[in-house]
Amino acid sequence: MLQKDHLFEWRTILQNVTLGLEIQNKLNEKMKSYAIELLDTYGLGEFLNHYPRQLSGGMRQRAALIRTLAIQPDILLLDEAFSALDYQTRLAVSDEVYTILKKENKTAIMVTHDIAEAISMADKVVVLTQRPATIKNIHEIYLTCPHCTPLGRREAPEFRHYFNKIWKELDVHVK
Fold it and tell me: 101 and 48, same structural domain?
């Protein structure tokens, strides 16, 4: 799942969601039903025959995630998946994505430059050095609100401790 949703404007939401299945030559009635079930479960069922331009930014990102889930991957890669969204939508969509990933029992590797986003979404945060990137540190994240959504996890008393610790590790030179 990339920074932009990359939904094709000339395809309906259902056609966009089943694109990966088409490419993998796995689109059949069973898989199409599964894709429709995902759309229904995650609030996009009534938008099957709509086009991307008819959806909000958050709904488009949700459709992109469902497109990814429809191919039933073992691991998801989220590459700056929320960066194209405004801050409020970004918080709401991160809550939705977190909930979907937990419900679907999926493992995700998320690339982000947003420390707060990383802490609120992850069980582990890997801090990388500048190019060429190597692992600088790995933080196991333990918050007193482990089952909360990312927005709730930001309220945990330990959150600030992790944020400050990771911030100090970054190779950021402010002049």
Answer: yes
